[in-house]
Amino acid sequence: MTVVAMVLWSLWSAFAFFFAVLQIYRSSLGRDEEDQIFLDDSFEHEKAAQAVIIAKVARIDPWVRTASWLLAAMSVVVVVYYVRDVLLHLNIIH
């Protein structure tokens, strides 16, 4: 395995780890989120608790989106590297 391949795989695994950690964190934040509508004012404390959960999840969403795009881009780079390597070994490109 060449140095370039090791660097590519190291970067890919770092992005994948970062993405997985963010996904786990987001799922743990949203664990207590409920899909219900509070129509009565007596449930104001529940509504406030749900609003806090939603705010936390909304704050982490841009990070998750960025991490997923980085992981996808790095995956494309790895695939392109190996396709180019195969084409070089088959003498299709020089």
Would you write up a description of this structure?
The chain is an all-alpha fold. The protein has one domain. Helix content is 78%, strand content 0%. The chain is built from 2 helices and no strands. It has helices at residues 3-29, 44-89. It is rod-shaped and about 75 Å long. 0% of the residues are buried.
Tally the helices: what do you get?
2
Count of discrete structural domains: 1
Estimate the mean pLDDT confidence: 88
Order of helices and strands: HH
C-alpha Rg (nearest Å): 22 Å
> Ends: how far apart?
20 Å
* Beta strand count: 0
Q: Based on helices, strands and strand pairing, what is the structural class?
A: mainly alpha
Uncertain regions spanning at least 5 consecutive residues: none
Shape, please?
rod-shaped
What summary fits the major beta sheet?
A: none
Strand content: under 5%
How helical, in percent, are the residues? over 70%
Short description:
The protein is mostly helical and 94 residues long.
List the helices and strands and how they pair.
Blueprint: H1 3-29, H2 44-89
Name a few traits of the molecule.
2 helices, single chain, 94 residues, mainly alpha, 78% helix
